[in-house]
Design goal:
The structure is a single chain. The chain is α/β, with parallel strands linked by helices. The protein is built from eight helices and five strands; from the N terminus they run E-H-E-H-E-H-E-H-E-H-H-H-H.
């Protein structure tokens, strides 16, 4: 193997498709870096949960793994919005990843539209000696499971859905997460961008 896998996700909140991708990475890579994005965003419709809570749930879900020493979790501020598809963001992301994992060459794992991730990186970064991309179609991973669907389950007070598609670290915080989500929906903060 001898390669580094990088997974960028917001985990708003963590669910089983995130954990499935991490599992795939561990079978294909020597080391795994999980970049927990949007560190600086919270109380927004797309980013309701703060970084401390998201990181705690992720680390709780990974802590009993026998291969935990191969996994590093990093946080990263987000200076873009979903509609910002710029090389400036891609360079920011790339150099932040490189500074943390200390290698210029890695495979980034992604489960959204490939157009999004390819719009972030200039051709010179998308090469065999820099970034390779491993895509998973979200529609094929747990029937298109997404954090949006999990937040909708909080809204409908559907704990059975949460139990089916989320790890225990999320299930045991069902009421806390639901209450945060309702509070954010009542008065969401505006998203912001570096552009």
């Amino acid at each position: 193997m001898n390669k580094y896998g990088v997974f960028l996700a917001r985990m708003q909140p963590l669910h089983n498709a995130h954990l499935w991708i991490i599992e795939q990475m561990l079978t294909e890579c020597d080391n795994v870096a999980i970049i927990l994005g949007s560190e600086n965003k919270r109380e927004m419709l797309r980013n309701p949960f703060d970084i401390e809570l998201r990181k705690t749930m992720l680390e709780e879900s990974l802590k009993n793994r026998k291969d935990i020493e191969r996994i590093e979790v990093y946080t990263l501020p987000d200076w873009s919005m979903e509609t910002d598809n710029s090389y400036e963001w891609g360079r920011y992301l790339y150099y932040n990843i490189v500074s943390r994992i200390e290698t210029k060459k890695f495979t980034i794992y992604y489960s959204d539209s490939p157009d999004i991730i390819y719009s972030w990186f200039e051709d010179y970064l998308l090469s065999e000696d820099r970034i390779t991309v491993k895509l998973y179609e979200r529609s094929k991973i747990f029937k298109g499971l997404s954090a949006t669907k999990i937040r909708q389950a909080f809204e409908m007070d559907n704990i059975e859905y949460i139990k089916k598609y989320c790890p225990d670290a999320v299930v045991k915080r069902f009421n806390l997460l639901k209450n945060i989500w309702f509070k954010v929906k009542e008065n969401p903060k505006e998203d912001f961008s570096m552009t």
